[in-house]
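Worked example 4.2. Below are the chains of a multi-component assembly; read each line carefully before continuing.
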Amino acid sequence: MATTSDSSFITMAHGNGGRLMRELIEHVFAPALGNPDLDTNADAVRLPDLSGDGEWLITTDGFTVDPLEFPGGNIGSLAIHGTVNDLAVSGATPCYVTLNAFIEEGLALSILERLVRGIGEASRESGVRIVAGDTKVVGRGQGGGLYLATTGVGLRPHGLQLGLDRIRAGDRILVSGPVGDHGTAVLLAREQFGLSGDLQSDATSVLPIAQALIKGPGLRFMRDPTRGGIATVAHEIARTTGHTVRLQAARIPVRPPVRAVCDMLGYDPCYLACEGRIAAVVSPESATAALASLRSLGHRHAAIIGEIAAGRPGVVLETALGGERILEELEDDPLPRIC
Amino acid sequence: MSVARDQLAAIRALPLSGPVRIMNVCGGHERTISMAGLRTALPNDIRLIPGPGCPVCICPEEDIYQAIRLALDERVVLASFGDMLRVPVNVPRSAVRSLDQARAAGGEVRPIASPRDAVRIAREHPGRPVVFHAVGFETTLGPIAAMIEEGLPDNLSLLVSGRLTWPAVAMLLESEQPGFDALIAPGHVSTLMGPEEWTFVPEHHGLPTAVAGFTPESIVAATLSVLTQRLEGRAVLDNCYSAARPGGNTVARAALERCFDIVPAIWRGIGSIPGSGFALKPHLAAHDARRRFPGYADEARRNAGAMPPGCDCARVVLGKILPPECRIYGSPCTPRTPVGPCMVSDEGACRIWWSSGIRERSAERRADAPAAPA
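Applying the procedure described above to all two chains together yields the following structure tokens:
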């Protein structure tokens, strides 16, 4: 155990500002997250250089996933990927992240160490530095083991214009890989369902995907389809543009185990969260090239799954059978606390 | 799926001379039809009508009331299928109206997915009476019979609300206006009981009939079969579900016969249907919650057994109206605030139509001309 002694579990004393808290930061957080820009003794830090060649974007997010660890990731890696991805789909290169950890009394230090290592590894892989942070301890029963809150900043090149307002009728919708992996993996990791499987969460940084899409022409808009899945992204597009989003069920990539779990529990994969995919809208003439660029990155399940059609705002799913039905907005979230 | 698309093309090419109303028996069929958008892929003249195949929807209100009363007894652990927890009963708003509310009020209510969970729960609570509200059709009662034969813990009793599907269809067919011209018979029930159970539909009533499983392919095949039969002026029982074999599952049927008597039974909002209910045999009386806890029923209660005011679930279940034609569809009845059982269960037609995106009420059609959804 890295922290000195007194307990192998988090106690209220780990949040009291004294020795145990100092040791927690020095022995658990600093080694995992350390980088030249992180000074754990400072109240505030000066960022090295915010006068880059572009505009600075800032995002913030909170993470409460249950369980804390799931196949393919944990709340720590998820927090970094989630923050990085919000910047990436906005066209920015993520640079710096701040981190708040709300730790529940009684959490095993060994688990906390694994989660914090997850933060460190995901930060390094995603190319971001953690530059400021804070820890708090909340009483037993007042938190789900660990909650994380982040803020991220990233640099977007001048002139890159992306947004819902750029979408036009006729544009195509792409997804970079199979949908619903994260939601299903978290679901399977919850013991109450009594199911098991070898499915992994897709949680990862989507920065390479976003940058490949940005390089091509005709990119209008990107979103990471997290809570509410691609159906929710489609609704956002429909609501904002006033057009109909038509999705083709047969083209939406879904892994067989995700399909099986959805069939069994009555879920629709279109509503299940991804944490490592991008849904992108591109002009009709650029769609094939955009798809090819994703496939050349190794995303062999990437697909053009639908298009924007002039008409009433709404989302229509064309079924494999050739019928169609309305894909309504998510009403009752089947899976609370997945991110 | 390409076979199904070919068969759909064949259906579209059929020279039908007017509307054909095809009733499906199972909530599972209805779910597949709605989720596959099958109605939109068929000509308007082919009308697919959801039928009586939702066990939660037709479970008597009196039985749910008894389950709630049992759950509120602090000694009792009440196990019920998850779908049942939110079905409201007819009691004043200030009273406990559902098993969900009974749980919130401190009752020990355990939602289960499989009958065997009830045995496990009973073993985990040896000192307490555990009551399993056994709601379902043949396909649920079969596994329950097998479970009974393996031996029940002494503290486990069953409040049986099991039903047979075919007597409800027979009752409709014997009525003055059955409301359908052909039948898609249930696949899973046929797997257990044998497809022959449904021969009475073509033989006694002259309606084309086909057994279908729960895939879009099987339902399209059954639809093509009954339409072709109708065009050719024939009515036979076709089987479009390979898992349903003649004779069904003889082992399971024998277990059902050893455990249950077939009795007249109430269908919620519909009334009593002869020979449609399962009741535990006398030798299982020690495990019969109706005998062990008779004081928990209260049939003299005001509105006992009635449908909630405004709720048209009974006519939905009988295929007389489509879900959005109910006066309270969408307002106030939604999956979040269900009034009637058809909006609660995953097998309920209202819930299925709602989750397939149909959110607006529509005017009631003529009884003999069901409208296809927009």
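Take a moment to check your reading of the output against the notes. Confidence is low (pLDDT under 50) at residues 1-5 of chain A. The radius of gyration of chain A is 21 Å.
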